[in-house]
Amino acid sequence: MNTTLLLLRHAEAANPPMGDFSEIADRSRPLTAAGQAAAQRCGLWLRQKGLSPDYVLCSPALRTRQTLAGLQPFLTPLEAEPFFCPDIYEAPPEALLAQIQKAPPHARSVLLVGHNPGISALARALDPMAMELDQGFATGSIAAFTAWSSEDSEQAPEWSRYDNHNLTLDTFARP
Q1: Helix, strand or coil for residue 48?
Q2: Are strands 142-147 and 83-84 parallel, antiparallel or unpaired?
Q3: CA distance 5 to 165
Q4: What is the pLDDT of residues 8-63, one digit of tens each?
Q5: pTM for this prediction
């Protein structure tokens, strides 16, 4: 059984109100109509690829929560509620990886819904040889990484041990 890490950048969001550069305004940006449609396409793409997370980490920003909501009708229902983690909002790649490494051992597939530049930097750090990532991590992009290890594949994954040494980009798409 594969262990999979899914990185999803939120779908297209509206601009903040003119002249409001506050964190509150940024966190409150909703998806555009195009962003809502893109979130649903991402969910459909995940279902078609047979990728359904067991555990979800999501930034608490409105645009990431709405992106996740657009995916959920296409996925297997989660056993646990998504974890809306404030540490994911505008986080650098090291902080994102630290949150992923806290995933519970029952999770075979982890989805992180976050923001750029952190999410694209994390994808690049996990697999620096993946040329697909050269095109950039536009809104609504998904990177699916497969974890490999010398451990028995039937054992529960130890997320704390996953990093750029044992995660390889399998698929990169913008559905």
Answers
A1: helix
A2: unpaired
A3: 14
A4: 999 999 999 998 999 999 999 999 999 999 999 999 999 999 999 999 999 999 99
A5: 0.94
